[in-house]
Amino acid sequence: MTVPYPELDTPALIVDLDAAEANIAEMAGVAAGHGVRLRPHVKTHKMPDVARLQLDAGAAGITCAKLGEAEVMADAGFGDILLAYPLWGRAKTARLAALRERATVRVSLDSAEVAEQLGKAAGRTDPVPVFVEVDTGMHRLGRPPGAPTAELVADVRAVPGVRVAGLLTHAGHSYRSASADELRATAEREVTDLVETARLCGGELEISVGSTPTARYGAAVPGVTEIRPGTYVFNDATMIRLGVATERTAAARVLVTVVARPAPDRFVVDAGSKSLTSDGAGTPGWIIVAGRPELTMRFLSEEHGVGGCEPGAGPEIGERLELIPSHVCPVCNLVDTAYGVRGGRLDRELAVTARGRVR
Asked: Is the pLDDT of residue 1 over 70?
């Protein structure tokens, strides 16, 4: 039995660097071809080394979800950051002030209350550039497009110490798309809603849209100035299900070892929800056994991954498999180190420096 990556103990997060670099180049080409900025979301990988590859390929800056991520990236030398999350409380406004001493930082919000806190901390002489988030269908943050958002923009513009730089949205509801046509329609609706809302707001506003499934469509719609995909860098089983990735472009896998064959139609690997995340559980193909279509993953407990196979077939104890997770973003947050590989060989370690930075 040939053991892949014998120097690695399992479970281990491996990143095919050739595939990741191709993904990075492809999305950079999409942005450049449509004349929009690419500002990838680093919450997917949380690795300064990977963010540097994205900037070297043409990204204009980075997007972070939390201050802790932004602080890590600023420490690593990244100087243009969009913090796509509303900040609340003195502790966070003080940290934002310190972060702005060493990087250009813009912040998203969806209320005048958050704007007032930011404005008080910033003062009139150094206003914080903000993006007002719009709810284009995910129903997480933001007011609906049109007049409700235009009214909020007017309220935020009246707050001393902040400056409205643009509108922002995240089409996370695109993950529920059942077809390419539905995905395209979601992306186009996301952008046209924002462009029309910007017209109602008046003035020059940037239009920043997110989501890996919709980024390629959204970039092509007139009016968009920036796209913020994150998952594209590694891809995952969800992106494969949506038709925007393949096994070949799924750069991140969890390397596991088969540790048991307790029944003829069942095998167990040494990675459970603490290595793979239970996101997407129950969806067909939620975790893919790379290169082994005859194998399926049935369920996870904390440390066990239980798979299915034809009776009497399937992997042997000691065999190693590569699992493509359902959602790669939380998987990266579960490890301190990922392992970059090329051509089936270990190339280098990748420190997941921003893991756990959720504050």
From this structure: no
Count other C-beta atoms under 10 Å from residue 240's C-beta: 18
Domains of the chain: 18-233 (3.20.20.10), 245-351 (2.40.37.20)
Burial state string for 289-319 with b = 16 or more CB within 10 A and e = fewer than 16: bbebeebbbebbeeeebbbbbeeeebbeeeb
For residue 147, which phi and psi values (nearest 5 degrees)? -60, -40
Using 50, 70 and 90 to split pLDDT, how confident is the model at 181? confident
Q: Is the pTM of this model over 0.85?
A: yes
Model confidence at 200: pLDDT above 90: yes
Q: Which of these, 35, 32, 39, lies nearest to 104 by C-alpha position?
A: 39
Q: Is the pLDDT of residue 172 over 90?
A: no
**Token digits for 253?**
């896998």
Residue with the two structure tokens 């100035």: 225
Res 150: pLDDT? 97
Q: How many residues does the chain have?
A: 359
Sign, CA dihedral 247-24-231-223, equals negative
Are 309 and 315 in contact by the 8 Å Cβ rule? The answer is yes
Q: Tokens 């069942």 map to which residue?
A: 266
CB-based contacts of 269, cutoff 8 Å, min separation 6: 11, 256, 257, 258, 259, 304, 305, 307, 321, 323
